[in-house]
Design goal:
Length: about 400
Amino acid sequence: MHGLKIVSRSASGRAAPWLAGALALALLWALGATYLIVFHDEVLAGFVARQGAMRDAYEAQLAELRARFDRDRRDRAGTETGLADRVAAALERQAELERRTASLAGLGRQTPPDPAATGALAPRPGAGLTPVDDEPDLRSDEGAEPTHAQPRRSALEAETGLIRLEARLEGLQAAQGERLAGLAARAGDEVRRLRGLIRRTGLDPARFDAPSDGIGGPLVPLDSRILDGAGFEASLALARRTLADGERLRRTAAGLPLGRPIRGVAVVSSPFGTRLDPFTRGLALHTGLDLKAEYGEPARATAPGRVIAAEAAGGYGNMVEIDHGHGLTTRFGHLARIAVSPGQRVAAGDMIGSVGSTGRSTGAHLHYETRIDGVPVDPQRFLAAGATRAQHDAD
């Protein structure tokens, strides 16, 4: 009996810790179950809230990634579209500049040469334009596998080529503006020179302006801003108008009696104006120039015109009168022989007779007159203007 008691105590001692652990677990389970029962709604709500927060965060990340992707795609598409639009605009601008270059070439052929740049070659049409091979190409290679690096590289190459093209076009446009300004300036100088030449004869250049047909209206000055807005076309039209004025004035000057009635240096034996008459020795008006010349020397027309008189005319002796238009006439007196007839057209330099001493004359010489609207004026003004023109032409 005593031995059995010892064994029971030993088994009971070994089972006590296990029983305590089981009791602790049961207690914890009971507490947890009680907590769940008591706080079930709060726990479930917290769980649901955490799951919702995780879902919202995930969806927010997805939305951000999607927005970033769409933004990158739009930026890339926008960049390519912008480059394509800029290239189209640049090519259109190039075509316009080529047209302007052709217009300037035609204008340059009408413009008097620049004395300061004799021998300089005008820019050839199309000079400075970008070749087609240099134009940027925004299309990707066919069949090439698209990568992130390839679109960036293609866009960069296109942007670089486009910048070069735009820079060349900008330079060409500036050069065209300078050339147009130079052509207009030379045309303006020529107009001023010709008007000055006409004024030196004592004539008003407006005398030769053709009257306008059926136009008029109030004068409204042109706003410079409008002219600036018109730009190249307005400047081109102004240059063409100036060139047309210059051409008209050149034709006018060519019709003025600016030539020499006798070849070589003519010595004046009696000037225009008041003088002592060689016969009466009293004061009288000399209506022309007496030019020393040998008997029989050719007398020549000083401008193109039509012979309106070729006859003996009192104190003039044998006289030829030529009408040069615009109220201008010239007379040649004391001729030994008349070589033209009334109604005949003559050119500048044509022989109209030979020097003599017919009429009221003391010896062989040429009496030469210039008249404006029938009134005699000093021929020296025309001869001096002719000498100036000859010097300009020689230079």
